[in-house]
Amino acid sequence: MMTNRRTLRNIILFCFVAIICGWGGVGIDMLLGEPSNLESLGALIFISSPILCMILLRLFGGDGWKDLPLKPNFKQNTRWYLFAIAVYPVVIGITLFIGKLFGWIDVSKFSFSAYLPILFAAFLPEFIKNIFEESVWRGYLTVKMEQLTKNEWLVYLVVALVWQIWHLPYYLILLDDAYLAAFFPYGDVLFIITSFMVIGVWTIMYTEIFSLSRSLLPVILMHTMEDSLNPLISEGFAIVSPDKVLLVSPSFGLIPLLIYLGTGLYLRRMRKDKEHLNSRQTNHKTKTLAI
């Protein structure tokens, strides 16, 4: 009982810090008379606060470090590593193919020789960034929610809400407006609604890969691949017709979103089947020993 109370207390503290830190950073920029952007003190506060909060809770809040899943488990997780690397390129490739087929996306500027150097250049910085980010969202909040409740839908909901709310000051203030408009040209209100849906669907997929592998590295790789593919849009390799963004945008479109949702639910089914099989085997061994 005391452990559950401590876990709940620490989850509440972490969520509170994650939700307010970005806006607090923006407020500090305003007090200093500095513009809020990705090079400001406010951006540093936004990025570092959840990580620092996690470290403090693990060091002094009673959480400890034993449940931080750092082992890569390469041998038993081979297929999940392949999935993590492939899922975003495959889904985005399908989306671009459909968009090109119907004349909704212009990919005339795309070539592998031009794009691959950009992808490789983006990969390492994004990988380092996502070590910290996934240590927070999967390695801490998801782990603690799983300890608190067996209801995976509640886990999805809490993680998705906090993850998205944490992102809001980044999207709405810290990120350059022109950069964001290249991905989503419909304004802030519709962006917030759409991005909540995207993060919600992604959370199912990320949570299930994390649960199946019990390692941070697959989700770090998956998140890194997603981030590294953003130059497809930002550098003009794929130009989505403005009236078709909600349908075929690689980041916000309905078509890729439905594929990710189906993938996440399929992974959930795999995990449930695996848990059921393990439970049956454990019960069988128990009965055999009893005899």
Could you walk me through the main structural features you see in this protein, from its secondary elements to its overall organization?
By secondary structure, this protein is mostly helical. It has one domain. Helices cover 78% and strands 1% of the residues. It is built from 11 helices and 2 strands. It has helices at residues 2-32, 41-60, 78-101, 112-148, 152-174, 177-183, 188-213, 216-228, 231-234, 245-248, 254-290, and strands at residues 105-106, 239-240. It has a two-stranded antiparallel sheet. Helix 1 runs parallel beside helix 5 and helix 4 crosses helix 5. It starts with a helix and ends with a helix. This is CAAX amino terminal protease. The chain crosses the membrane at residues 7-28, 40-60, 80-102, 114-132, 153-173, 179-202, 245-267.
Can you describe this structure in just a few lines?
By secondary structure, the protein is mainly alpha-helical. The protein is built from eleven helices and two strands; from the N terminus they run αααβααααααβαα.
How is the secondary structure organized here?
Layout: H1 2-32, H2 41-60, H3 78-101, E1 105-106, H4 112-148, H5 152-174, H6 177-183, H7 188-213, H8 216-228, H9 231-234, E2 239-240, H10 245-248, H11 254-290
Antiparallel strand pairs: 1-2
Largest β sheet strand count, sense and barrel closure = 2 strands, antiparallel
> What percent of the residues sit in helical stretches (DSSP H or I)?
over 70%
Class computed from helices, strands and strand pairing? mainly alpha
- The averaged pLDDT comes out at 95
Basic shape: globular
- The domain tally reads 1
Low-confidence residue ranges: none
Order of helices and strands: HHHEHHHHHHEHH
Put simply, the count of helices is: 11
In what order do the strands lie side by side in the largest sheet?
Answer: 1-2
Which band does the percent of strand residues land in? under 5%
Protein name: CAAX amino terminal protease
GO molecular function, one term: endopeptidase activity
Pfam families: Rce1-like (PF02517)
Organism: Tannerella sp. oral taxon BU063 isolate Cell 5
